[in-house]
Design brief:
By secondary structure, the chain is mainly alpha-helical. It has one domain (about 10-110, about 120-160, about 185-320): Mitochondrial carrier fold, CATH 1.50.40.10. The chain has 13 helices and no strands. Helix 2 packs across helix 5, helix 5 packs antiparallel against helix 6 (about 125-140) and helix 6 crosses helix 9 (about 190-220). The protein is globular and about 60 Å long. The two termini are about 15 Å apart. Mean pLDDT is about 80; it is low at about 1-10 and about 320-325. One of its GO terms (biological process) is glycine import into mitochondrion. It is a multi-pass membrane protein. Pfam families: Mito_carr (PF00153). Its main location: membrane. InterPro entries: Hem25/SLC25A38, MCP_dom_sf, MCP_transmembrane.
Length: about 325
């Protein structure tokens, strides 16, 4: 893709640009793909509704819905969580990668750290893994309360009618709403399982995304696509990376959902409970197909929007650093 004059002059967008671009990408992704998240949560909760319930499926869950709009239940907390989380994640990730690339450049000025289709610098696989891991850990922990509200809204175990009701219900969860005493810790239930799922996922994702984007996909995408070539490369790399990492981290997603919908406090206990239920070891991968679809499409949308917004002429004019070297 052709570069802008600002890119050629070695200048890069500031943190505000990365925050807004990431939040915009997360917003579009969250609203578009909320039905995938809702159905995945419903599949993962099935043993909590009745021990003798017929094994559910996507088709059965769809039949239970009275209106199409019910597929978007939980969109508000999902949108808040994804847009805020994506904004924070992309901002922290770009800052870490850019600063590390600049540090490496001061040590060795002969290093080529520029990517052909991206504004993000090229780093080693270990550096990609580490920066992705740390950026997700920070963003994931900050947005954990919204994640729990989102999960409860998507589940039909809790009939919250508003965000306030959901916040109140979670705060008083240990006391079943019988007393005024509650705990802020309830908003961080399943934090460890979520971080164990998301941090390796994010680290592996950045590693595989950069590998697909810089080494494999460009070989397959023809130059004749012109200015659209970088979008195709970035989107394809994002989908492939998301599919790979989603499969690897699927068990932690099932454990996370169980912890956030019940009073279980141990990852090990939750995992044993899932395995001992009808379905056995497969329960750890329940909802994987929906998560694969959601994550793959979400990554394609989010990273394409993010990368293209960062390179857009509007961002280059409004948020350009005057004296910063291009990452």
């Amino acid at each position: 893709m052709s570069t802008t004059s600002n890119q050629k002059n070695g200048k890069s967008p500031d943190a505000t640009a990365h925050l807004l671009a990431g939040a915009s990408a997360g917003l579009v992704s969250a609203v578009t793909l909320q039905p995938f998240d809702l159905l995945k949560t419903r599949l993962q909760q099935q043993q909590l509704t009745s021990k003798h319930e017929v094994r559910t499926s996507v088709a059965r869950e769809l039949k239970k819905l009275t209106e199409i709009k019910d597929l978007w239940r939980g969109t508000l907390p999902s949108t808040l969580r994804t847009s805020i989380g994506a904004g924070l994640y992309f901002t922290v990730l770009s800052k870490m990668r850019t600063n590390w690339a600049e540090y490496k450049s001061t040590k060795d000025s002969t290093l080529n750290l520029k990517s052909g289709s991206s504004v993000l610098p090229k780093l080693t696989p270990v550096e990609n893994l580490t920066t992705g891991f740390l950026a997700r850990a920070l963003a994931g922990y900050i947005t954990m309360p919204i994640t729990i509200i989102k999960t409860r809204f998507e589940s039909n175990l809790y009939n919250y009618n508003s965000m306030y009701e959901g916040i109140q219900g979670i705060y008083l969860d240990d006391n079943k709403g019988l007393t005024a005493k509650g705990s802020i810790r309830n908003f961080f239930k399943g934090s460890l399982a979520t971080l164990v799922r998301d941090c390796p996922y994010a680290g592996l994702y950045v590693l595989t995304y950069e590998m697909f984007k810089n080494d494999f996909i460009p070989v397959l995408v023809p130059q004749t696509l012109g200015d659209n070539r970088s979008s195709v490369i970035n989107s394809s790399a994002a989908v492939l990376a998301a599919s790979t990492c989603t499969t690897i981290t699927a068990p932690f997603d099932a454990i996370k959902t169980r912890l956030q919908l019940t009073n279980e406090t141990s990852m090990v206990k939750a995992a044993k409970t899932l395995i001992h239920e009808d379905g056995g070891f497969r329960n750890l991968f329940r909802g994987l197909s929906l998560r694969l679809g959601r994550k793959g499409i979400s990554a394609g949308i989010s990273w394409c929007i993010y990368e293209e917004l960062i390179k857009s002429s509007f961002v280059q004019k409004k948020f350009i650093k005057k004296d910063a070297p291009m990452s």
